[in-house]
Amino acid sequence: MTSDGAFQCHFTLNVTRSTHMSTQAHGYDILRNPRLNHGSAFTQAEREQYRLEGLLPPGVSTLELQVARTHAQLEQLDNDLQKYLFLSDLQARTETLFYALLMSDPATYMPIVYTPTVGEACQKFDHVFRATRGLYIPISARGRVKDILRNWPEPDVRFIVVTDGERILGLGDLGVGGMGIPIGKLALYTTCAGVPPMHCLPITLDVGTNNATLLDDPLYLGSRHERVRGDDYHAFVDEFVSAVQEIYPKCCIQWEDFANFNAVPLLARYKDKVCTYNDDIQGTAAVALAGIYAALRISKQKLTDQRFLFLGGGSAATGIAELISQAMALEGMDIDSARKQNMLFDVNGLMVNSRTDLADFQKVFAMDHAPIDTFVDAVRALKPTGIIGVSTVPKLFSQPVIEAMSELNERPIIFPYSNPTSRSECTAEEAYRWSKGQAIFASGSPFGPVEIEGRTFVPGQGNNVYIFPAMGMAVFATESTRVTEEMFIIAAKAVAEQVSDESLEKGLIYPPQSRIFEASMHVAASVAEYIFDHGFARVERPANLVEHIKQAAYTPKY
Asked: Is 417 a residue of the active site?
């Protein structure tokens, strides 16, 4: 705890920044402001100064005691959704304690504030809604988007995570219920990489929903009409992007959980104009590439010798396939040849040139090959070294598929990346057991350790959390004007190089989530170096880049 004089200066600054008031807040105004509220940790001197006497129990706690008390309260709850709601309420009451708790044990709390628990929270959003968070911008507000953005109390927003709620995880169209995703993502920006929370803004663009169940539900909180498409939709998004650039000129926009037919064109439209990226496409691709880099340390093979077969042909699959292709090209392979090493299989079979149903973003990966209708037949015919699942359809990495991969490869790469857990293409135990322990495995959702014939395997989670918070910190610390594809390749390499030989021995190909903050600092520094080297930074290059990033990172303290 700082001295009373130092605390008063910091406290006054926070009041000014958080409420835009020149006068100090007192009493309940402080206790009801999550950025100012310290709860039972207010000292006696602070209670006297800010008229808090009598409004709190007389005992004074430290932040460490508050974390311990809150952890014990969570342990009494019966299920993860209750814990999610408890943490949401905590975030709405006292932000410092919320982040201190999450950062004290990120491996425990990340699955609660984000996937897989956030999926259920989004599905039940309208029925469990409590305190509001972020901004909701309906398409009916076209022409007034700037006015709505100006309602947000923080003047310096650096990160917006925005969704239109159409493709939430593997759960589909959840309308405004998708807001749980931007909220959760931004909580991880801070927890995992120290991006200051006052600079983060979750947004939902409400363009309607095609989910008939929601439209018929009297508790649904979104606009009650079907989704707006076409020119009206794109004009609305254009207005949003332009408004952000005007009001928050240093802001990076992260697109989240848009349907494929919108996600790909939106990224292509804006990526060379503003600081923006799509985590479902680029973040997912980078974390998959990081897993591949680490897997190759086990198999002792080269990236350019790999052949990957994707189950799923949407924006996630093509995003991963393109980033792998770009990484292969950086190692000397012709880009067209590299793309032929990445093959896509969707609900209509192998993506081949003779098909007439392919979108433009899929055609670059279409093969000159006879049609193949079943995934196991595609494995046997194409002989991939790895299979990557982004289908959101569970159990499609069946026993015949895993056994075929094991016959073809001494160490097959098996990555069922769909989430939440209920949508995973196979479980860790299935992959290890059916491959007789040969598989190099990672999944999109968490699985526990698996014992096969006396050997314990620790499955890795190919979670985008290894990428997007660190990317955010790199952009924040440098005030970068752009996010490029090569920045994601650099991030992937930086993640993989932190996996210890001991972890690889157990099959773990990602850094332990208990060390996610340290891992993110390393990734952020690597990406920031690229940003400075390529002239994207808007700040002067510091003498010590690692120290600069550490100084910029948020630390929860009173």
From this structure: no
